[in-house]
């Protein structure tokens, strides 16, 4: 697997979470009850936080893999 494949996947993941965030903002404008708050706290926020924590790790893995590939090609 080439390191670029990991970055491509990370980009797709980032795009998807941005779409989720925008969609959730739109939904929250009309869904204003207790269940909306619970859904946000139990589902939306944890997903967004998990992805935010994951993306730097993916970038680090990509860098390490890139260095390993370059080293093997020498």
Describe the model.
The chain is mainly α. It has two helices and no strands. α1 (3-30) runs antiparallel to α2. The longest helix has 40 residues, at 34-73. 0% of the residues are buried. The mean pLDDT is 91.
For this entry, give a set of tags:
mainly alpha, 74 residues
List the helices and strands and how they pair.
Blueprint: H1 3-30, H2 34-73
Tell me the β content.
under 5%
Structural class: mainly alpha
Helix percentage? over 70%
Terminal CA distance: 18 Å
Average pLDDT score? 91
Cα radius of gyration in angstroms: 17 Å
Provide the succession of SSEs: HH
Low-pLDDT stretches are none
Count of helical regions = 2
Largest sheet: none
User: What is the approximate shape?
Assistant: elongated
Write down how many β-strands occur, each being a DSSP E stretch of 2 or more residues: 0
Structure summarized in a few sentences:
This protein has 74 residues and is mostly helical. It has helices at residues 3-30, 34-73.
């Amino acid at each position: 697997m080439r390191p670029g494949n990991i970055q491509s996947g990370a980009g797709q993941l980032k795009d998807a979470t941005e779409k989720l965030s925008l969609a959730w903002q739109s939904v929250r404008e009309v869904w204003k009850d207790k269940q909306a708050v619970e859904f946000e706290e139990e589902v939306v926020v944890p997903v967004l936080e998990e992805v935010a924590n994951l993306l730097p790790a993916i970038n680090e893995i990509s860098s390490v893999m890139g260095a390993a590939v370059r080293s093997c090609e020498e």
